[in-house]
């Protein structure tokens, strides 16, 4: 993990979340970046939707997903940002 806090959602986090636990709170599987999942994996989930394709080719490094549960996005943001 990077030692400096990310300055934006688009800033990479060295392959693991910075603010949240890197494992799924339900099953313990390592979280993966949402943008790294295949369309087939996303289609398996009622909670996840395929992102719109537009001119924005950026990866959001604050959106993490359990590839096993596929139960939604776990946001990697400071706790006070969710208030």
Helix/strand order, N-terminal first = EHEE
Our count of helices gives 1
- The strand order across the widest sheet is 1-2-3
Alpha-carbon Rg, integer: 13 Å
* SS content category: little secondary structure
Largest sheet: 3 strands, antiparallel
Which percent bin holds the helix content? under 10%
Strand content: 5-15%
Count the E strands.
3
Q: How far from one another are the termini? A: 25 Å
Q: Name the poorly predicted regions.
A: none
Mean of all residue-level pLDDT scores: 86
Note the overall shape.
Answer: globular
Report what the structure shows:
There is one protein chain. With 83 residues, the protein is mostly loops. Helix content is 6%, strand content 10%. The protein contains one helix and three strands. It has a three-stranded antiparallel β-sheet, with no helix packed on it. Strand 2 and strand 3 (73-75) form a beta hairpin. The longest helix has 5 residues, at 39-43. 12% of the residues are buried. The model has no long low-confidence stretch (mean pLDDT 86).
Brief write-up:
The chain is low in regular secondary structure and about 80 residues long. About 5% of the residues lie in helices and about 10% in strands.
